[in-house]
User: What shape does this take?
Amino acid sequence: MRNRRLIALLIACVAVAASLLISTQLSSAKNEAAGKGNGKHDPDTPPPIYNPYPPGILPSDLDSEIARVIREVDNVEAEALAQLRALPPPTLTGQPPILAHTGQRANVLLGKVLNFDKNMSPFATRAFAFCHMPYVGFSGPIPSVNLTMVAYPGSVRFRAGKRTAQRYTYAPEFPVLNHNDTQAAFFGGNFWDSRATGYLLGSPDAHQAQGPPVDTQEHALPDTACIAFRLESASYKSFFETIWGDELDIKFPHDTEEICETPGGASVFGTDTMPIKLSPSDRARANDVYDHWAQSLDQYEASPDVSAYSSKFDAFLANAATLTADEMAGYKLFRGKANCNSCHLDGRSTAPTPPPPYGELPNSEDTGAEASTRPTFTCFGSSNLGLPLNPRDAIFYQNKPDSFGFTANPFGFGFRDLGLGTFLRSGPGSWPNPNDTWTPFAPTSDGQMQTSTARNVAMTPPQCPTTEAPGPYFQKEFFHNGYIKSLKQLVHFYNTRDVYPFDVTSGHCPSGTIEKVNCWPRPEVKNNEDMTIGKLGLSETEENQIVAFLQTLTDGFTTPYPDINKFTGVCARGGSAATQGNEVLIPTPPLPPCASAICDVAPLPTMPIP
Amino acid sequence: MNRLLLIPTATVALTLIATGNFFFSPQAAAQATSSPKQTSRVHITKGPALESAHGDWAIFTWTSNNPGGSDEHFGVVHYGTDPKNLSQTAKSHIRLNPAHSYTVFRVRVDGLTPKTTYYYKVDSANASGASDKVPSPLKTFMTQ
Assistant: This one.
């Protein structure tokens, strides 16, 4: 017993010493970052700008656009807080105890308040909604970022991620990631690489919500406990406590604020993922808070405030709306000749026989059985569509350390995005794989990205009523690396990827060709390339009809979509949807081989990835 | 778990609900797969043919009746320079549309030698790798 006490005392001393060491180093690192010498952090002094980018990579209006989105976020947050406060409080009753009457709505509104709270970041500048605003289906809200750098700038200007901001809408519908042995494929999860498996919370969407707060290139909090710490001083603290039963009175160490104001990845933390030194019981409480916080966000995203099932197509399924001739033609193509619904499931049991040249019969009658009343337009699977490497992606340029000593991508242009394959290997830029039995499937998953729902792919704010030039339009970005800039290009890529293939990288299409029109550069990853697509035989008119159909999947037709009118920016005008964004194409530099830390990790890819 | 011992019963219940499979959507899971019955006889209705050739790679295509079985499916090309020994195999993934009567298979073949005559047959396979036993004619092509 005495030995145990001595050991316990020794452990406690080591913990205190480590805490003091980190605290001292923190002050040093932060002073260096802020150019100060008094050992205290001045929240009004932002850290130095991190700009490893060559001229032209960051959009010229980035600062003003960041400020614009922060204003919009604050606006929604204020309204959400008012809605939450105006709600009659629920009554805890029954067995099992239920927050009766208004409990569900209170949880949804709490999730909304959490989503738009910019205090959940080191410098109180990044709400979760910053990269996911309602007027674009909760995807990226800055047209110039969508046009150029692809990934969104995080708390540390200008660290950025590597992929486009996925839409929240219908993300809660994805099941817990599982490997279906019969189909020999993965289904479910959240994120492009499915790394938010939902293995503990039972909800990939809630699991996903736990990513950005501590993602080094997003909010960049250094410790998940920072969320509980920030909630303790939130104006809506009592609502959180009422809904979840948590008592937000964790005994945080004196240096917690300083730690939470230091971005994750800072060299001062080393490999410590829990720099806030809490007692085991307080760490468990902070973990509970983090789970509950994520689950409220999930319930907001699952609610009609986000996933509304209120599109024209939903009205069509309910016999409450009629599709135009082009929309209906597009719908038939979607589940017929173009075969889109082999992955973007439309809820119909059968579809017309494909017409010549692939079938033997002309377009036939739809003999389908009853449609699902809420098809999700995804199979929840993953595939490698063979997209070219996008040299504008901000990740390629972040190969130098920032003022905190953090380097997002030491491989530079040696980075290759293997998506699900890298996650299954617990590789760089992903999360640890929680299931070793999945690892052997990495080689057959390389290059695969999640099949997004087609719902709300076309959602834009009312004053910019389309994604398509000449507009007025809202510039969006499509697929995981934002290479595609319009729905017209998206459909054309599916239709002609293998009709106009060129063994070049982006920005190097031969003279006489036009990139994305009659020249598709080679895939970033050709392993496991999906051959369901690539040569669909669609005419120009048929491509446009599919675009028209996709636009019927935008929520807000039957009832107004919440907060869709919050955009205060400017629409784009002019040009053509076919070449939209081509004016900012840049030549891909000569590519070094794929970094060995990505491509030479067992189990090895089925064929070498150059 | 220690936390659960310290908090009111109501919170225990809420915690259990929240950390269980409460949010799992049976409907969502059901949409993940839909395997129609395996077709007893798969036959080619069009092709096989060389769709396009590009230096050291090429695409082959053919149409068959829908083989059924797993939605996750593969087109398979057995090929080689000796018509009696098709020693090499290429597979490409497609996703069957269970509602379609016919299925278009397309297979990308990499690593071909220029200016060489190749012979090939095609097949398809379900997710487990089991052949659909597609009767295929022996075809030939020459690389550029």
